[in-house]
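[Discussion] Sanity-checking designs against the backbone

I'm trying to build intuition for which residues belong where. Below is a structure token string of 120 positions. I'd appreciate it if someone posts a full sequence so I can compare it with mine line by line.
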């Protein structure tokens, strides 16, 4: 399967005018969104906790997390964001996608809207 990317705006939920926009890799193997930590700090989002994540190679790492508002494809959702290294490629995880009823069409490598958000 190829690479699917989408433009995402990450907003401070306390002040949505504070935002950062970037091109995110859509990764259905990732649960949450990974954002460059320096960009989150610039818009006033500070870490609120730590969570352990398993990487693709099976290793585990503790990472800072917070809640942010993310906007993409005309949709908005509050979601957990992970503070990545400052030069990390941003990742849009499956939780944000599913929360607004969007999935990847693997044949066309594009995002598509479902007729309704799944509650099951």
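Best answer:
Here's mine. Compare freely.
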């Amino acid at each position: 399967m190829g690479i699917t990317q989408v433009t995402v705006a990450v907003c401070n939920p306390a002040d949505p005018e504070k935002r950062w926009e970037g091109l995110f890799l859509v990764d259905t193997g990732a649960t949450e969104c990974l954002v460059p930590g320096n960009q989150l700090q610039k818009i006033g989002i500070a870490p609120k906790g730590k969570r352990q994540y398993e990487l693709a190679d099976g290793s585990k790492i503790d990472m800072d997390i917070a809640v942010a508002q993310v906007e993409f494809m005309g949709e908005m959702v509050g979601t957990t964001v992970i503070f990545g290294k400052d030069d990390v490629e941003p990742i849009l995880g499956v939780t944000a996608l599913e929360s607004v009823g969007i999935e990847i069409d693997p044949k066309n490598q594009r995002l598509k809207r479902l007729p309704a958000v799944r509650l099951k």
